[in-house]
Structures are given as structure tokens and as C-alpha cells.
């Protein structure tokens, strides 16, 4: 995992400057790191805590609260499949099984080539469009196995 | 505040408008179940169990609901009970049913409510079986003290709140979301890698068995424990404790709920460092040194006869002043009182002193001279709730008196301004509004400079000075010649920063000044204290709640041992031996004639006299003076010179090795007595366990010994002595055993049985009439750096250890977290000497050398070595003392450091 270099640290400081109340910068700083590196490491958390001047425990409690933050291994495409009740009713389970078979990985794993990672998440707050799959920053709604196959083969190219 | 009326279960109740429904019900003794509420913590309404029915609102959590005029509350309708049952069912669905093996059983709130609401098994599916595979159960995760068993956690959030709101460590918080929520520490790793200070207060507040003491594991069920109230044996905060005992062994220790100085909280030492009590090394029988210099066990009667014969002979041969006695700041008041009485009444000498001489004698001397009363001016409650400026100097309460630091931090969160002045950057400096880092040993000039700024800028309180202070004209004149430029040069602190301090201090309504040994342990210690008293006097920051000088005492009864007159220059209650009225008073109280009016010898003077052969006999009651006094090698020679040397202690200490006779003493958990804490509060401790072998309480030994000398001391128990203290010391007159048994924890002065005690000193007038200002010239430390010894050595404490570790060092967990002996140096010095973190270095002074591992920290100034005193620091320190208070200069000597292979 890449460490935060001096340039990135400067950018983090710039984010911090925007807020009167340093604690408010926790989420923007985490988003920035995720965007930059695809995932957030323990080391990153310590650096952010240090910059804001608070205890790392506080950052960790925020970071672990949001399932959209990626703290595990990174991949080019991180697939977040909603497994909450509305999506489940509309067939999320089948889609997750399809993805596991299609990518030859289990939920929580990353493909050998580092291209896809599969995660399940609690509610993406788009129940009216269920089932919902999020890939990186993009929501794919009213998902079906056919649509899923199309998206995956597109991304495999 | 106007009261409002609400109705609870049809009864009209008057209450304050800032109360919650939960609190009003509690006051009315209507029980409402709750798992997350704690009176000392913020309200979150996390557990959802304290449901009540409020008219117009429905079923709602009572802890988050503030009362309103005319509110109608019903606490136990069928619906409310059912709703609470749903919550309990949900909680239990995620909790193992292992009460039969759970350490918390009998004291578990979830178990209690399940019983009361008749829930045998959750109506919901066993969720925790699924959950178990999801969450990591952390057992004994890297700390030697705390078990985190999160399978049992109900996520009430109390542990995180106490960590943040009371301790300020923020090592615990709730992480993750929804069903996966879990308490995390640091980066969700072991507690050891976080800012955890191992205070164990999270265990105290856990309502279930999720957080537990490792020491108490498998030691018995909660209902088998006997619970005894005691006082923590370590620092001067004087925390009230509840000691849990089974089969004559201490199982665990908790803070006493509503303990006046600690409000139920403890630190790592008070909570966990008690294994010394049951250590196999405890002394169990009197020991006599034979001709081969080996100790052999003897009977008590023989031992007492030997003391009687030897002291009588020395007295006859060399006179009473050839014998000296040293009491203990960790023995209760009654025993120190009896100890000085033994020397004054029976030996007939004022050669009696104790270890306060080595820590706060400068405070006693300075405050006695300037204000007439030597004690903390305020209470810890005032510090937390009233003081709006707190100046902390020469003390590191975070490590040396943690309970007080919790309170200081609470005051800061409340909005009080914090000024920290210390040559070493302490943790508290991070929380300070302004931090000043002067060169060590420059306090007089530093505080004179602040006073000069105050006078120059007319920030002093003229009305107060006119009414209550004397010597102002002279002081003003003295200050006229004072140069701020010179002060800047000597202290290394820009005048502008001192101006900020002066402004914050003088603009406060109630400013307190806290200090400890970083002020007193100098050859000019008394002068240092006087400069602080000057500041309070010229600004009128004294004589009102939350304001005034507030020395933080080092040991749990150092205030009391001084009050009891275990001092060469004071009888009990600070009555001078050279005053005929004192002698007359005590001659009549003790039924004695011929008490000595000659001032005695202080601790170091006694050892000096022993070295020179003038002191022939010595009696130490609880104290490892060989290693706690400066210059260990010199001390050893002094002890070897003694003709007869008795040590009464709980362990065969380094000092005891030199004794001719050793008497085994009971430790504070094995006897009764009262302790006076840093805020002058007198608290009783009761007997928790029996002493090992034939060890006896100090007061019993002294009574037996006095009777050997032909005196009829007939104390049947400790409380008989307390009653005698009530008669001897006017400020203790009202602190009677009856009031102590009733639960009263009074602060002296308490002159009669109806008096409520005195939280704030100096209100209206000083004991000596007017406060005295002193003109104090700067005096350099005794041993300045030289080409051969270019570094400055300074000493202090660390959190996990206490003194020379004879007590703390006997708990395995404490040894684990302290690790190898170490000292701190500045990164620049480390670079210069090519010393790496954890590498070894040798510190040498004119008197000796020591090899330790190095910790590199920018908190230490360049050219300074900070050595925790626990690691045998006194082989290095020098013996020069403050001529007034006779306190040694532990905080400053010249040394050299080099890399050690």
C-alpha cells in the first residue's frame, strides 16, 4: 500500500484549512484518500488523526461506520452489492451468487488480477430502485443478472 | 432556580426545571431500569430501557426527557412494561446465556433486569450465534489488566464515554454500524497500541461482563466477596476505594461511588497495583541481625526488649537527641501521631521527621510563613467546577496524580483557562491555552517577572492588598529594581508570553495555582513557593472558592503526617516546640513533664549527623530512605555508622538491609486509620485483610513499645487515638470517629463536632491576620553544569510506578507496562551522542552512575536528562538542601551522559 507522500499531505492540509472545526474534515479527508489510493490504510488513519490533532480511535469509529469506505485490499472495480431487505426481496441474493460464480470469488475477496473486488453492504439508500449495485462511485439500479453480465464483460475489456 | 410541578404516577412532584424525568424518578425512589445511564457521564439514551409513558408524547426514554411544567408521567403501565421487555428480549438475543460461568453474575444489570422482568430466553432468534462469526472476540488483547469480551457487550457506550469524558484518553469508541456495531480501540487493534492509560474505569462502568479485571478472573463469584471501604495507598488525591475480599485475599479494587475526591474513578496504580499485599516477600516475623550479619527470626517480646534496652542505653550514654525517628506519609494519621508522641514523650527529643521533608516541606514552610495555613486552599470539587483559570506548574498530574488531572481536564472542557509552566512539556500542556517552557531552576525569577508585569500594568488588586496583605510597599520597591530583560535571559521565556500569562491569570474570577515537586525540590524551594503565594496575594486570587495556592501532595497521607506533627519543627497541628504554650499544652494533655523545646533534626540533617557520628540510634517506621534520599552512597555510610537501627516496614527494603532489628508491619489494607488527602480531607480506611504472619499495625507496635518503656498507653483501637487527636489539634477537633463512621468526609479546619468542615481556606482573613509578601532574589541551583558534567539531570514520576517500586513493582502487569528502566533525552542530544530509541546510555554525576535505556522525546529540552525517580535515581542526586525547609534539590544536578554498549 502506498504511503501518503508529502504532496498528498499538503492536499490534506488544504482540506483541513477549509473547516473552522478541524473534526469536520474527517470525512472529506477520508474521501480524498479513498479516491487517491482506492482504499484507506491504518497508517493513513494515523496520519489524518495527527493532522487534525485528535485520537485515531475517533477516526476509526467514523471510518468503520461507513461501509462505502474501503479499508481492505484494493481493486480496479469494487462492487458493493446491497444485501438489505428491499434489495433482497427484489433478487439481490441471486445477483450476489451470480457475481460470485462469474468472478470466481466469494464476497469479501478480490480477483487474482486485482480487477474486481466483491463486497456486500447494508442499504445504499435507493430502495425504490432496488436491487442496487454500486461499482466504485456509480450506482447501477434495477439490476438483473443480464444487466450485470453486460456490465462485467464491458469492464473486463 | 424556580421549581416546577410535574405528576408521576398521579403524585404531584416539585423539581428543578433542568432535571430529566429519569433523575426525578430516581430522587423519588421510583426504580426505572437503565443500562446506559451513569450519573457522572453524559446522556445518550443508548439502551432504550428507561421507557416511561408521558401524556401527549407516548412511550419515551426518560433519561433524555427533560421535565416540563404540568408534565404527566406514568412509569409502569402494561404498555411500558411490554416495551421494556421487547428491549430486553432484543438485547438478550445478542447476548450469551452463560450467567452460570460469568464473572459478572450477581452484579450484572442485564441479568438483574432479565430476572425482574421474567425473561428466561429471548423471544427472538439467537442472534449472537450469527454475530459471533462476524465480530472478533478480543480476550486479554495486549493489556495485562483488561479482558474485553465483546460477545457480552450490549453497546451501552459507557466505556467510551468514561474514556473520553472523565479520563480524556479516548482509547475506546463505538465503531462499525448496525448489527456489526462494536466497541473499538485505536485502529480497532489491541488496547496496548492506543492512548489507553490502563485506569480500568471502563471496567467500573461496564454494566455487564464485557469488560473485566484479569486479576479477578476465576477468583470467586461476586456474592462471595466482602466489600470494605478503604483509601488508595498511593498518591495524595486520596481516592476512596471499595476493596473486594475473599478468603483473606484482595480480589479486586473499585473506586467508591461518590468518593469525595475521586467520584468513583481510579488510576492504574489504585485499581490494579495491589498484588504487593499478598506478596510472599512480606515480612512476617521480627528479624534480628546476628554476628554473621544474617537476619534471624525472633519473638516479638524479645524484639521489643532489645529496642527498649538499646534506646535506653543510648539515651543514657549520649542523651535523648542522639536518637532520631522517621515516620511515614503513607501511614495513617493515628500512627504518625503516635510515632511523634513516642519520640517526644518517651525519648524526649524533637528528632522526628518524615518523608514530606523530601517532597513538600518547602510548601509547608512557604505557605505557613505567607498565609499561616499550610494546605491546599480549595477543594478538588471547586477546581473542577468553579476555578476559571488553572495555573499548573512543576507538576505532572497526568502521571503523578491522575484523578486530579481528570478534574483539571474536565474544568478545561467546561471552559476554564489552563496555563502550564514546566521545563518538561507534559501531556497537560497539549490542553493548555498557553504553555511556557522555562529553563529548569529559574522559577523565582520567572514568577517575579509575572508579578512585575502585573504591577507594571496595574493588574494587581489594590483593594485586596490594602485590606488583607502586608509588606506591599517594600515589595513594590523591590520590584522596581527587577529587570524583565534579565528575566528573559535567565528563564529563556519571552516577556510577551509571560504577559499573556499575567493577563489570563488576573482576568479570571477564580484562579488556582497548582504545583508539586517541580517547585519545591530546589535549594530555593521555599522561595519558589513564596513567589507563587505572592502572585495570589497581589491579585486577590485567594480566599474564595476555586481560587488560591493548591499544592498537589505526593503521598496519600503526606498532608496528614505533617498535620500530626511528624516534623522536627512542629508539634501536632503546627504548634511550635520552642513556644512555651505548646510545651505546656502537650505536657498537660500527655500527663508528662520535661518535653524538649530544642528544635530537632530534619531527615537529611539526621543522616548527616549519623554520618558524623552524632546520631547513634534511628527508628524508621515505613520508609526506604536509603534510596529515596539523595546520594545513596553517602546514606549507606551514614546508616553503617549507627549503633542501633530499627526499621519497621512491610518488606525487607534496601534501607532495612542495614537495620539491626526489623519489625514486620501491617500494610494499609490490613489495618484501620484515617488519611488526610491533598485537599485536607480526612477519610477513614477499614481493615480488609489480616496481616501476614505476625505482622502488626504500626500503632499496635508503638503501643506495645511504649508500655515496655514503662508508659501506660492504653489505646484499645485506632479510634481511641483519633479521639486524642481531636483533643490535640484544634483543626481536627470536630473530625471524630462517630462522624467518620456516619460517612462524613470532612476537610479541616473543622473546630467542633457541629462544624461542616472547610472546603475553602483563607476566606475573610488569614490565620496570621494579613498575608505576607516576600521579596525574593534569584538564586541559582547548587550544582551547575560544568565541562565535565555538561548536562542537567532532573527527576520525576511516571504513571505506572510509585517511588522506588517496592509496592507497584510487585504487580506483574505493572512491571509489564513499565518495561525496562529508562530515561528521556532530547532528539538533538540523542543525535549528538548517536543514541537510538531503546539504546542504552550511562548517566554519571560526581556521586555515581546508572545505565538505562533511552527514550527520545522532544518534550525534554536540549541538554537535559529526565530520569523517572523509580529507577534508583538517587545514586546520582546531591545532598544540598534548602536552608529553610531542608528539602533536597532532586530536580537539578549536573551530569554527563554517554552511549553505553
Structural commentary:
The complex is a heterodimer of chains A (157) and B (901). Chain A is 47% helix and 11% strand. Chain A has 157 residues and is an alpha+beta fold. Chain A folds into 2 domains: 6-65, Arc Repressor Mutant, subunit A, CATH 1.10.10; 77-156, Glutaredoxin, CATH 3.40.30. In chain A, strands 2-1-3-4 form a 4-stranded mixed β-sheet, covered by helices on one side. The longest helix of chain A has 12 residues, at 6-17. Chain A is elongated and about 50 Å long. Chain A starts with 5 loop residues before the first helix and ends with a helix. Chain B has 901 residues and is of the alpha/beta class. Helices cover 31% and strands 17% of the residues of chain B. Chain B contains 30 helices and 34 strands. In chain B, strand 7 and strand 8 form a beta hairpin. In chain B, helix 9 crosses helix 27 (718-728), helix 10 (361-370) runs parallel beside helix 20 and helix 14 packs parallel to helix 20.
Helix share of residues of chain B?
A: 25-40%
CATH topology of the largest domain in chain A: Glutaredoxin
Estimate the global geometry of chain B from the Cα principal axes.
globular
Gap between N and C termini of chain B: 69 Å
Q: What string, H for helix and E for strand, traces the elements of chain A in order?
A: HHHHEHHEEEH
CATH H level, superfamily name of the largest domain in chain A = Glutaredoxin
Give the largest interface pair and sizes.
Answer: A-B, 16 and 18 residues
Strand order within the widest sheet of chain A? 2-1-3-4
How does the helix and strand content of chain B classify structurally? alpha/beta
Counting DSSP H or I runs of 4 or more residues, the number of helices of chain B is 30
What is the CATH domain class of the largest domain in chain A? Alpha Beta
* Low-pLDDT segments, ≥5 res of chain B: 132-137
Strands of the biggest beta sheet of chain B: in what spatial order? 14-13-25-24-23-15-16
Amino acid at each position: 500500500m502506498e504511503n501518503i507522500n508529502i504532496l498528498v499531505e499538503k492536499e490534506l492540509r488544504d482540506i483541513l484549512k477549509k473547516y473552522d472545526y478541524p473534526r469536520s474534515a474527517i470525512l472529506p479527508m477520508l474521501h480524498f484518500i479513498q479516491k487517491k489510493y482506492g482504499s484507506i490504510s491504518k497508517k493513513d488513519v494515523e496520519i489524518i488523526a495527527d493532522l487534525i490533532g485528535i485520537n485515531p480511535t475517533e477516526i476509526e469509529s467514523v471510518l468503520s461506520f461507513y461501509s462505502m469506505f474501503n479499508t481492505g485490499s484494493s481493486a480496479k472495480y469494487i462492487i458493493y452489492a446491497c444485501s438489505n431487505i428491499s434489495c433482497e426481496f427484489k433478487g439481490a441474493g441471486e445477483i450476489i451468487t451470480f457475481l460470485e460464480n462469474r468472478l470466481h470469488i466469494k464476497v469479501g475477496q478480490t480477483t487474482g488480477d486485482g480487477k474486481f473486488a466483491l463486497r456486500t453492504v447494508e442499504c445504499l439508500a435507493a430502495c425504490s430502485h432496488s436491487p442496487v449495485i454500486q461499482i466504485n462511485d456509480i450506482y447501477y439500479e434495477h439490476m438483473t443478472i443480464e444487466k450485470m453480465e453486460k456490465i462485467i464483460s464491458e469492464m473486463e475489456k | 432556580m424556580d421549581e416546577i410541578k410535574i405528576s408521576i404516577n398521579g403524585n404531584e412532584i416539585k423539581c428543578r426545571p433542568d432535571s430529566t424525568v429519569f433523575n426525578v424518578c430516581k430522587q423519588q425512589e421510583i426504580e426505572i431500569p437503565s443500562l446506559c445511564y451513569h450519573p457522572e457521564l453524559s446522556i445518550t439514551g443508548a439502551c432504550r430501557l428507561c421507557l416511561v409513558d408521558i401524556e401527549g408524547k407516548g412511550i419515551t426514554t426518560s433519561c433524555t426527557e427533560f421535565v416540563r411544567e404540568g408534565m404527566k408521567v406514568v412509569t409502569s403501565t402494561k404498555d411500558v412494561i411490554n416495551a421494556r421487555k421487547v428491549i430486553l428480549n432484543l438485547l438478550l438475543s445478542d447476548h450469551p446465556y452463560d450467567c452460570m460461568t460469568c464473572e459478572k453474575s450477581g452484579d450484572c444489570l442485564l441479568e438483574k433486569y432479565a430476572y425482574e422482568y421474567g425473561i428466561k430466553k429471548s423471544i427472538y432468534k439467537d442472534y449472537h450465534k450469527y454475530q459471533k462469526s462476524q465480530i472478533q472476540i478480543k480476550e486479554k488483547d495486549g493489556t495485562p489488566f483488561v479482558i474485553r469480551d465483546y460477545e457480552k457487550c450490549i453497546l451501552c457506550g459507557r466505556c467510551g464515554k468514561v474514556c473520553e469524558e472523565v479520563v480524556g484518553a479516548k482509547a475506546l469508541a463505538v465503531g462499525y454500524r448496525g448489527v456489526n456495531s462494536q466497541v473499538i480501540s485505536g485502529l480497532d487493534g489491541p488496547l496496548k497500541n492506543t492512548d489507553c492509560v490502563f485506569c480500568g474505569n471502563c471496567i467500573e462502568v461496564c454494566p455487564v461482563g464485557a469488560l473485566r479485571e484479569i486479576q479477578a478472573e476465576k477468583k470467586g463469584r461476586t456474592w462471595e466477596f466482602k466489600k470494605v471501604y478503604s483509601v488508595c495507598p498511593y498518591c495524595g488525591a486520596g481516592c476512596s476505594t471499595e476493596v473486594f475480599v475473599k478468603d483473606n485475599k484482595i480480589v479486586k479494587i473499585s473506586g467508591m461511588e461518590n468518593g469525595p475526591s475521586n467520584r468513583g474513578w481510579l488510576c492504574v496504580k489504585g485499581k490494579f497495583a495491589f498484588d504487593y499485599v499478598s506478596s510472599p516477600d512480606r515480612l512476617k516475623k521480627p528479624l534480628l541481625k546476628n554476628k554473621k550479619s544474617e537476619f534471624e527470626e525472633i519473638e516479638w517480646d524479645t524484639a521489643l526488649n532489645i529496642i527498649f534496652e538499646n534506646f535506653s542505653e543510648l539515651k543514657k550514654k549520649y542523651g535523648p537527641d542522639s536518637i532520631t525517628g522517621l515516620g511515614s506519609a503513607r501511614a495513617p494519621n493515628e500512627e504518625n501521631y503516635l510515632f511523634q508522641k513516642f519520640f517526644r514523650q518517651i525519648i524526649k527529643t524533637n528528632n522526628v521527621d518524615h518523608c514530606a521533608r523530601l517532597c513538600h516541606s518547602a510548601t509547608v514552610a512557604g505557605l505557613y510563613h505567607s498565609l499561616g495555613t499550610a494546605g491546599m486552599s480549595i477543594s478538588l470539587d471547586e477546581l473542577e467546577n468553579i476555578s476559571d483559570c488553572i495555573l499548573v506548574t512543576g507538576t505532572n498530574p497526568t502521571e503523578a496524580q491522575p484523578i486530579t488531572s481528570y478534574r483539571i481536564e474536565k474544568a478545561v472542557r467546561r471552559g476554564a483557562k489552563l496555563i502550564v509552566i514546566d521545563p518538561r512539556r507534559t501531556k497537560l500542556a497539549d490542553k493548555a491555552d498557553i504553555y511556557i517552557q522555562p529553563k529548569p531552576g529559574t522559577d523565582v525569577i520567572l514568577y517575579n517577572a509575572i508579578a512585575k508585569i502585573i504591577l507594571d500594568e496595574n493588574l494587581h488588586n489594590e483593594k485586596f492588598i490594602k485590606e488583607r496583605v502586608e509588606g506591599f510597599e517594600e515589595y513594590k520597591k523591590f520590584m522596581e529594581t527587577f529587570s524583565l530583560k534579565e528575566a528573559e535571559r535567565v528563564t529563556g521565556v519571552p516577556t510577551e508570553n509571560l504577559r499573556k500569562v499575567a493577563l489570563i491569570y488576573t482576568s479570571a474570577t477564580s484562579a488556582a495555582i497548582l504545583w508539586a515537586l517541580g517547585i519545591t525540590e530546589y535549594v530555593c524551594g521555599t522561595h519558589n513557593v513564596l513567589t507563587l503565594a505572592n502572585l495570589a496575594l497581589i491579585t486577590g486570587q485567594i480566599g474564595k472558592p476555586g481560587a488560591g495556592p493548591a499544592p498537589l501532595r505526593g503521598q496519600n497521607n503526606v498532608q496528614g503526617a505533617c498535620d500530626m506533627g511528624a516534623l522536627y519543627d512542629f508539634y501536632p497541628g503546627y504548634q511550635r516546640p520552642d513556644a512555651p504554650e505548646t510545651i505546656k499544652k502537650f505536657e498537660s494533655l500527655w500527663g508528662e513533664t520535661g518535653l524538649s523545646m530544642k528544635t530537632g533534626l530534619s531527615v537529611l540533617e539526621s543522616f548527616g549527623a549519623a554520618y558524623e557520628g552524632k546520631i547513634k540510634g534511628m527508628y524508621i517506621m515505613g520508609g526506604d530512605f536509603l534510596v529515596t534520599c539523595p546520594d545513596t552512597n553517602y546514606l549507606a555510610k551514614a546508616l553503617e555508622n549507627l549503633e542501633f537501627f530499627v526499621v519497621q516496614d512491610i518488606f525487607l527494603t534496601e534501607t532495612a538491609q542495614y537495620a539491626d532489628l526489623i519489625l514486620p508491619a501491617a500494610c494499609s489494607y490490613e489495618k484501620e486509620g484515617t488519611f488526610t488527602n491533598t485537599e485536607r480531607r480526612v477519610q477513614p480506611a477499614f481493615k480488609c485483610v489480616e496481616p501476614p504472619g505476625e505482622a502488626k499495625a504500626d500503632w499496635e507496635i508503638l503501643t506495645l513499645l511504649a508500655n515496655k518503656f514503662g508508659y501506660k498507653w492504653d489505646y484499645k483501637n485506632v479510634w481511641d487515638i483519633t479521639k486524642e487527636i481531636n483533643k490535640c489539634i484544634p483543626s481536627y477537633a470536630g473530625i471524630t470517629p462517630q462522624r467518620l463512621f456516619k460517612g462524613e468526609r470532612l476537610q479541616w479546619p473543622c473546630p467542633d463536632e457541629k462544624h461542616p468542615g472547610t472546603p475553602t481556606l483563607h476566606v475573610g482573613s488569614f490565620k496570621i491576620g494579613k498575608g505576607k509578601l516576600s521579596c525574593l532574589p534569584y538564586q541559582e541551583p547548587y550544582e551547575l553544569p560544568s565541562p565535565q558534567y555538561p548536562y542537567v539531570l532532573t527527576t520525576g514520576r511516571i504513571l505506572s510506578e510509585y517511588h522506588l517500586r517496592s509496592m507497584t513493582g510487585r504487580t506483574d502487569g505493572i512491571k509489564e507496562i513499565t518495561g525496562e528502566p529508562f530515561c528521556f533525552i532530547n532528539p538533538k542530544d540523542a543525535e549528538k551522542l548517536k543514541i537510538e530509541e531503546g539504546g542504552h546510555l550511562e548517566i554519571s554525576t560526581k556521586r555515581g552512575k546508572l545505565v538505562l535505556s533511552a527514550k527520545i522525546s522532544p518534550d525534554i529540552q536540549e541538554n537535559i536528562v529526565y530520569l523517572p525517580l523509580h529507577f534508583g535515581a538517587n545514586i546520582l542526586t546531591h545532598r544540598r538542601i534548602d536552608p529553610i525547609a531542608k528539602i533536597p534539590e532532586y530536580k537539578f544536578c549536573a551530569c554527563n551522559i554517554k552511549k553505553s554498549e
